[in-house]
Structures are given as C-alpha cells and as structure tokens.
Amino acid sequence: LKMSCFWFCLPLYLLTVACLCHSIKAPTTSSQQSFKTDLFNFYHSLILADGKETTIHLLKDIPKRYYFVLEESRALAPFTVTVTPCDVPIEWSILMHKASASFLGKAARGDPGTREVSKAQKAPTMVSTIFNYKGNSVETYMGMSSHSALYMLEFLSTERDTHITVYLTTDTTSGHLYPELPMDPRIDVIGIGHTTVTLTWKHSPSVLQHRENIQYCLLVNEKHNYKSLCAAETAMRSSGVKLPPTLALSLSPYLLEPQQVMILSNSELSIISKASSGEVRQICVGTKNTYTVPSLSPSTQYYFDVFVVNLLTNASAAYTGTFARTLEEPEPKVTELKDGKVIQIVLDGKNQKFYSLQYQARHKKIQFTLQLCRGQVRVHITKNGKTVASENISGLRYFLLKGKLLDTYLVQLRSTEESNSSVKVQVSSHFHKPLFPLLPESIKIKSFSKLRTCNSVTIAWLGTQEESKYCVYKKRLEEDQVWMELQSADRCSGPESRHKSEKVLCKYFYDINLQRAVTTETIKGLDEGTLYLFDVYLFGPSGIPIRYHSKVVKTRKKC
Fold it and tell me: Transmembrane ranges (predicted)?
C-alpha cells in the first residue's frame, strides 16, 4: 500500500516542487535552473534503479539526467552512488531538491491553497548541489537520504561519446556489490628479470570473507594503466580486440576470437589478445596475491593492473596500477663459424632468443647453407652490421653473398615456434663443391590412390640430372601416432637413425631431361587397412643425406 501511494503521489510531489522552484527569486546556477526545468518533463526523464548497476551511454556535450526519490520508510537512511567512467573523463554531480514536510502534506491532500503559489511567498532556496566530480576515476558518494527530497544525477562528456556504469543502493546491510579494496590498494613490484616481473598486493577483505566468489585478475599491457576494468575493456575493443563480457567470465566457456590465444595452466587462465596497439594479456589467478608475469620482452616497460572481481555479480574494483621495465637482455654469446664445417644448433622455442654465429670472410664470395631439421626457424644475416638477408627458412636454403676480404658476417637464428627447433649451418668459400646434394624442384613424395591395394602402395618422387642414390624406408603407424610422428620428425637425420627392418630398397637414377627425372616404386608385403609412413633419402657426393617430406598412406581394407 505504501509503495502504491508513493508512486501515485510522486508526480504530484514533483509538480509541487517545480512550482516552488518557479516562485524563487534568488539567483540560481545554470545547473539549478536546468534542474527546475527538468522537473516539468519528469515523464520524459529516467528513474535510477535502486540496488542495480545501470549502464548509461553519453553523447558528447549532451547532458543526461537520472532521478531517484527515496520512499518514506527509508528516511534518514544512508545511501551510496558509485559512478565508473568506461573511457574518457566525465563530469557528474548530484543535486538535491528538498520541500517542506507541511507543504508536501497539503499537496498530497490536494489543498487548494497549494494550487497558486504567491510570488511574495518566502521560501528558502531548496535546490543544492551536494556533490560534483570531474575525471575518469571510480568515485563513490555516501549520503543520508530524506523522504522529502528528490535527487538528480547529471552526467556530461565533453570529449566524445562514451558510456559509464552507475550503481545506487540504499541497502548497506546485505553486503557490497563491488568487492572491497584493502586500506593500501597499491601493487608492489618485488622482482624484475629479463622476461619476468613479480608482483604482490594486499588481500581484499572480500576475498577473506567470500573466497569462493572472488578472484583476482591481472591486466598487462605496454600503453598505460587503467582505473577500472570497464575502461580497460573499452580501450581493448576500440583497438580491434573482441572480448568476453568481463574478465569475471573468463572461467566460463566461450569462443575466442582469431586474434586471441587462451592458455590454461596450474589453475590460471591467461588470454593473450593481439591488437593494433600491441599485446594485451589478461591473467586470472584465483585468490593468490603474488604472481610472476612470464614471457615478457627484455628492456620493455609494462603496465600492470589488478582487479578484484565478484564472480556472482561481475562487479570489480581496481587496485592502484603500477609499471616496471624489464631488464636489458645480455649480449648473446657468439660462436665462430669455420669454413666448410657443418654445425647443428638446437634453438629454444620458449625463450625465443637469437643464437648468433660469426664468420670472417677469407674470400670475396662465400655461401651460407642452412638445412631446417625440425620446427620453424628465422634467419637474419648481416655483413659489417648491415642486413643482407632475413627470412623464415624451410628445407634447404643457400645464401650466396659477395663482399670484400675480412668482411664480418653475423648469422642470427631463432625458433618461431614455442617448441624447440633445429637447424644445420655451413659456410664455405668453396661453393663450387657443394656439401649437400643437388635437389629436385620438389622433395615431396606422391602416392597413387588408384594403385593402392590391400597389401601394396605405389609412390613416386622427383630426381635430378645428377646420378644419385635414393633409399626408401617404411614405418607402420597407429591412427593416434600420425600427428606426433610428423611433428617430431628430424629432417636432418639419415637412415642411420632408422631400424634395419624399416629399409625397403636403395636405387640409383637420374635423367638429363628434368621432365623425365621421376621414378616410381611399388612397396609390397603390407597389411590391409594399415597406415604406413614412407621416407625417401637422397645421398649426394659427400654422403650427406637429404630427407624428402614424409608421406603417410593407408592400404585398402577390402580388395
């Protein structure tokens, strides 16, 4: 009944207050005058919900106003208003209009004396601004409500269109929508390495009280700190990154965008997002208050923000962000290359560090030969400090370079995969005597589906104009072994790494006409419906083998 009366009397109350405002002769501010005008248009305004977070979209230079009136049973009770800017700084204020209780009583009873307000009637100025703020920080106003007061919140963005969230509540007994921050909300940097930064922060009281519903989420980027999770998500979306609704939902299943990578390990969820503004990393660490951020770049400044998130309401509170610069990477060790000598290098995929090789030329023309054994490798070659070659290599790659005597060449190699990669390197001034065999146009093995039977497979491969030795090997596989076998294959290893039972045959052939430099072989004695891995090794004059790309073929089940 009280609520029915409240909403029935509210329009009359607003109209009455508006009349009072109209009769006041005292000078008023523009905000107060605007406030009075808006009372007449109450039905075209918006009521702010109590106990609910409201998202408000603001257009540039156009103020937006929300109202709330507190029912009589809530008289002189505390209330709070929390405003979170999600992008640029905004201006916002709270205005209160308070009418006398006797006048409101007459208005509610429909007293004719209230229909005309004498201009000579003395009434104190009832409109007052009780709070105002300009900036992009999360701000909370705490006040005492009055049943005879109408409150207006006015928001304005002067930079550009934006959005904010507003939370009004009069219930201060049932807990907080937003997680609480500790008395000291700073993030401390307690360790800095070349690729890591260790952070710690004081526990939120909410974590200690509601551990199962609260978690910490960390945001790492190279641009600046964010004062709210809302602001961080807005900035990332404007950079072209699509996000889940909030980091609080990071533990729920959702589809990642193509530019996002999700890593789950040791109960920690990391989301790495690639955007035009650089990499942004989101890490949810549960209730731990110390964390070492891994896989950072050396000599780079990073900004770190910690948010304590309520998993039930998706509301969050931001610690005071910090920043740190990782240490400079020490000068890499340089290995001297010797003319004609082949070395094999294993590259660490996790650290993504360059492996450096140096060579001082004893002839004007030299040739670098690189054979990719496993993984993916990028090579960068400089001559006296100037780049002469930079590319990802595959298979066998030759770099024939011209210069002067005693020119200094630096070859830098690194894995472009997270797993380890391997490569063979040789430099020689006697490139007219190649160490590796002459290669055909393609080193792929072809199989003929129509020639497959239950116990035989026919394969073919290209040769060269140079007579060479070719050896064929086979290996039986299970369905679940195929991917691992192909990924882990060492393309630099020769037949000596194979079991003797896997050898099928060896043969010599060549053809002056490259169009006819192709050979076929039918491998018999196979099992029906079975997967086989076939490899062909090419041996040159030096005896160093080149392994063709492996081919997996399955025999027919029925013939």
Answer: none
Say if residue 407 is in the same domain as residue 479.
no
CA torsion 221→227→230→232, rounded to 10°? -10
CA 470, CA 509: separation in Å to the nearest integer? 8
DSSP state, residue 364: S
Q: What is the pLDDT of residue 24?
A: 36
The token pair that represents 466 in the structure block: 């140079």
23, 82 Cβ separation under 8 angstroms: no
For residue 30, the model assigns a pLDDT of: 54
pLDDT of residue 418: 84
Matching residue, tokens 């193509």: 258
Q: Say if residue 473 is in the same domain as residue 543.
A: yes
Residue 119 lies in a domain: no
Pair 298, 395 in one domain: no
| Residue 513 within a domain | yes
235 and 151 in one domain? no
CA atoms within 13 A on the CB side of 246: 20
**Rounded CA gap, 190 and 201, in Å?**
10
CATH code for the domain in which residue 203 is found: 2.60.40.10
Task: Extract the residue ranges of the chain whose pLDDT is less than 70.
Answer: 1-45, 71-76, 99-125, 146-148, 172-176, 238-279
Distance, CA of 77 to CA of 71 (rounded, Å): 10
**Pick from 53, 20, 28: nearest CA to 150:** 20
The residue behind tokens 């891994």 is 294
* pLDDT attached to residue 204: 94
Specify the number of domains making up the chain: 4
Query: CA–CA distance from 126 to each of 45, 92, 123, 481, 536 (Å)?
Result: 21, 20, 8, 81, 94
Q: 544: which 2 tokens? A: 């160093």
Q: What is the pTM of this model?
A: 0.49
Q: What is the spatial distance between Cα 88 and Cα 164, in angstroms, rounded to a whole number? A: 10
Residue whose entry in the numeric block shows the structure tokens 């509601």: 210
Q: Which pLDDT score is estimated for 407? A: 94
215, 287 in Cβ contact below 8 A?
A: yes
3-state secondary structure of 175: coil
What's the pLDDT at 169? 85
Instruction: Please give the residue range of the domain that contains residue 316.
Output: 176-243+278-330
Output the pLDDT for position 71.
61
**Which residues is 93 bridged to in the sheet?**
132, 154
pLDDT in tens, 394-403: 888 999 999 9
Residues 324, 202 share a domain: yes
Please, are residues 345 and 422 in contact by the beta-carbon 8 Å criterion? yes
Helices (H), 94-152: 101-109
pLDDT at 307: 94
Q: Whole-number mean pLDDT of the chain?
A: 80
% helix, strand, coil for the chain, step of 5: 15, 45, 40
User: How far apart are alpha carbons 272 and 533 in whole angstroms?
Assistant: 37
* Interacting residues of 318 by C-beta distance below 8 A, sequence separation 6+: 138, 226, 227, 228, 229, 305, 306, 307
